[in-house]
Amino acid sequence: METLLRLSTLLIILFTVTAFGQERKITLNDLPPAAKTFISQNFPNQAPSYVIEDKDIRETEYEVVMTGGVEMEFDAKGNCKEIDGNGFALPDTVLPKVIMEYIRKNYKGQGVEKAEKKRWGYEVELLNDLELEFDNNGKFLRLDD
């Protein structure tokens, strides 16, 4: 009886682990339309190196790495959650205009290396490693060091 209980517990754990995080390689065409549009508008001259669909019980996310080294994460609807230029400036078009205008005005010559969309707004990292926070309307909140 004890052996049967242990075996049952082991099978439940094994099933749970496999159900919780299934990653599979997909093509760019398998992405949600919003993600495909974001990529084609912001990176028209780069091809994807690989595209991964990551499913778990709660949500589906997509990870895209471009041949130029840019990494992006999208939610199930295709909204960009995070983008990382890995040492290179991202195109100005990846963030709302009001945020880019603030950066151009206050941090001349600095490009955006990384941006992350949060519920409350945006976290933006510049090439000089300064981290800025903006609300959902693009209003500057604070410098995060």
From TrEMBL:
Gene3D superfamilies: 3.40.1420.30. Residues 61-141 form the Putative beta-lactamase-inhibitor-like PepSY-like domain. InterPro entries: PepSY-like. This is Putative beta-lactamase-inhibitor-like PepSY-like domain-containing protein. It comes from Flavobacterium rakeshii. The lineage of its organism: Bacteria, Pseudomonadati, Bacteroidota, Flavobacteriia, Flavobacteriales.
